[in-house]
Amino acid sequence: MPVLELREPRAPETERLAQDEIAVIAKHEHLTLQEAAARGAEMLREPWGHAAMRQMVWDTLTDARRRADESATLRLTEMYRRTCLRYPCPHDRRTSPTRERHPFPFDDRG
User: Fold this and answer.
1) Nearest 5°: phi and psi at 17?
2) Which of 34, 50, 58, 66 could anchor a disulfide with 4, C-beta 3.0 to 4.6 Å?
3) pLDDT of 9-68, one tens digit each?
4) What is the pLDDT of residue 4?
5) Dihedral angle sign, alpha carbons of residues 22, 26, 28, 31
6) Contact indicator for 99, 55 with CB cutoff of 8 Å
7) What distance, in Å, lies between the first and last C-alpha atoms of the chain?
């Protein structure tokens, strides 16, 4: 299986994924970047894919906040805002009344 290098053009099925999104999927799912790109492309074809992408960024953000990593928290907060705008489909296969709440209210600032 050929290795996907970051400087190579991505496969057509991963065009919608940004490099930082692929990196979050890789970290969240313990995958290589190539595996994460493929997994992300598959995930976004599912009805729950947008919610899953948002949740992976959220999980990574809350982990950075727990570790008190200020630079990662700032970067991931901006990424989470962008992810919420890029992947707005509200369908979520996971629901829980004890789930941690959104880190900031939705607004039009993006």
Assistant:
1) -85, 130
2) 34
3) 444 444 589 999 999 999 999 999 999 999 999 999 988 889 999 999 999 999 999 999
4) 47
5) positive
6) no
7) 39
